Amino acid sequence: MPTAREALLNAAAAALAALPWSAIRMVDVACAAGVSRQTLYNEFGSKEGLARALVRREADAYLYGVEGALRARSDAIERLVSVAEWTVVEASARPLLRALLTGCWGDRLPAPRPAPVRHRAPAGPPAQRRADGGAPDPGELVAAVRERSRAALGQGHRGGEEADGDGTGDDAVEAACEMAVRLALSYVVAPGPGDVGSLLRRVLSATSPTTGGR
Fold first, then answer.
1. Which of 17, 84, 157, 196 lies 20 to 30 A from 90 at CA?
2. What is the mean predicted confidence (pLDDT) over 136-142?
3. pTM for this prediction
4. DSSP code at position 94
């Protein structure tokens, strides 16, 4: 059974699928979640706080999904393909995720700014204090995906081999991880012919022998 906070976030997400954020009322979110309006305000402080929490949850869910995609396959290139394909599919179905990845929010979505420090309640729920700090911008999300990808590829390196002494192995892996997420974002913004996975396989096989050899 979801907590009151999760029930409220689920209700807000469901409302956002049908209505622009500006038309969503806090009382309706509380009613849909089966809790009092006071509980909603205790959790989030305001509608802006609810928006920050909703966006923060979407960012966390995306990064959790990236980690799952990286675990789904063993080959290094296929791990990056998995992340790229999953990113494109999920962004096409989740407007909030698409906005987080591109920075293009539009009129229907909340685009909350971090709460001013003076307005952050130190006694509020820890999850809300984190949400009030603001969601990652597109550049920060790219960096987070790149670092998770690099860590996953490093753990799967054949036989525990070390990188080249001059660091070129690490550089090649980092470049491949960066290329994968940025190519995925290009498909999110401007879908092209074919699929992102096929293109990424060709690019990485041709340009990243270190990655391709794992």
1. 157
2. 93
3. 0.87
4. -
